Amino acid sequence: MSEKFDVIVIGGGPAGLSTAYFLAKKGIETVVLERGPESGSKNVFGGRIYSYVLDRHFPGWRKEAPVERWVRRERLAISCKDSTVTIEFRPYRSEDGRYDSFTAFLSKFVAWLAEKAEEEGAMVLTSTKVDEILFKDEYASGVRTGGEELYSDYVVIAEGINTLLSERHKLRNEPRLSTTALGVKEVIRVKKEIINERFNVNDWEGVAEFILGYPLLGVAGGGFLYTMKEYITLGAVVRLSAIREKKIAMKDLAELLRIHPAIRDLVRDGTLIEYSAHLTREGGFLDVVKKPYGNGYVIVGDAAGFLLNTGFTIRGVDMAIESGRIAAEAIAKAHETGKRDEKTLSYYKELLDDSTIIKNLKEFSKLPEFLENERLYKDYPEVVCDVLSVAYTTEERTKRIYPALKESMKNHGINIITLLSDIIKARGAI
Q1: What is the phi/psi pair of residue 100, to 5°?
Q2: How big, in percent rounded to 5, are the helix, strand and coil portions of the chain?
Q3: Which terminus of the chain is less hemmed in, N or C, by CB atoms within 10 Å?
Q4: Angle separating helix axes 401-411 and 379-391, nearest 10 degrees
């Protein structure tokens, strides 16, 4: 094996493999160093991928990629202890499939993406942990792994959320508990026919559900549910600041979510086969890195903070793949000139600024702060449940909704000023 490459990519997740794929297509010698025993073995996420970036750059992927189900039902569940309000949106997509999203196991999807990168000529080395980025004359010039030194003209940092290398070399900002969250996920095996019946879908249709409220009362976070072919993935995501302040045991939240009446019947008689946890950063790229490039290096994907939580959906894999493509464009241009200084690689940031990645993150830049409002997770869900309970409960004396709304708001410490203030903040954030 050569000790010198054009590009070394640290991390074999979606961002790193995307970078390698597009670099290899341009004939640039690229090696991906993945610490897991096989591609995808250390990748964890909720369960959904948006397809637009694949449609644009991976011809024929719909017939090749390990898609579980195409999302055809979007649900928002406002959950209380003994009731749930569910809003369902069912989009009817065009025949060309644009704007699709699908459920998948990230481990399988990443393994497929690794195959695509290797087909183009990239080298993917698994069970290879990078211990250090080698800097020579203040330029990233390679890595040290297992006592061996590998050199390159460019280093792509795609180490995901656990950015130990970036921290060691002071390439990232200190993480903040208020914008870092912990997600836990259970994978429950349920027969395909039962999933189809319970969710009213056919073999290829899937459901994506976001859960707001109980059992996440009083903390910034939410639950999620995705249907796979023969599995249901169920989990919760909570800010680390809330976990510390409230002394929350995430395994207890996952258990409470699974046994809630609205969820219990959906996973009844299923078999829990997997439990996993994963950190995520929700503050945007400026909250993560000082700048996503420097002398001899660029930072992509989760490592650069390219994740967007809109309050209704969470996007990460698509942004990771797109950031890898953009990084490959910037490196290829630098490679043509033989330069690798910070000024030359700043072209990566220029391309990012013109991309939907940064435009989307800027569009929702006020959202992370808005989502810290605990009333969104405790008080407002309870008010909704209280009011609808009155509206749909028939007794001898029927109650009016507006007085019930005023009473519930009063019981939860919400006055008109507080409500208007939250509406104004939501208007600027969502």
Answers
A1: -70, 160
A2: 40, 25, 35
A3: N
A4: 150
> Amino acid letter at 32?
V
Please name which of 369, 360, 234 lies closest in space to residue 308, comparing C-alpha atoms. Answer: 360
Tokens found for residue 103: 């459920």
Closest C-alpha among 197, 203, 202, 195 to residue 234: 195
The residue type found at 405 is L
Reported pTM: 0.93
- Distance linking the first and last C-alpha atoms of the chain: 51
In this predicted structure, the answer to whether residue 94 has a pLDDT above a threshold of 60 is no
Letter string b/e over residues 406-423, b meaning 16 or more CB atoms within 10 A of that residue's CB:
eebbeebebeeeeeeebe
Q: Could you read off the pLDDT of 124-163 as tens digits, one per residue?
A: 999 999 999 999 999 999 999 988 999 999 999 999 988 8
Backbone angles phi, psi at 385, to 5 degrees: -65, -40
Strands 314-315 and 69-79, by their bridges, are: unpaired
The length of the chain in residues reads: 430
How many CB atoms are located within 10 Å of the residue 95 CB?
Answer: 5
Q: Which of 242, 206, 237, 213 is nearest to 76 (CA)?
A: 213
Q: Is 285 within 8 Å of 292 (Cβ atoms)? A: yes
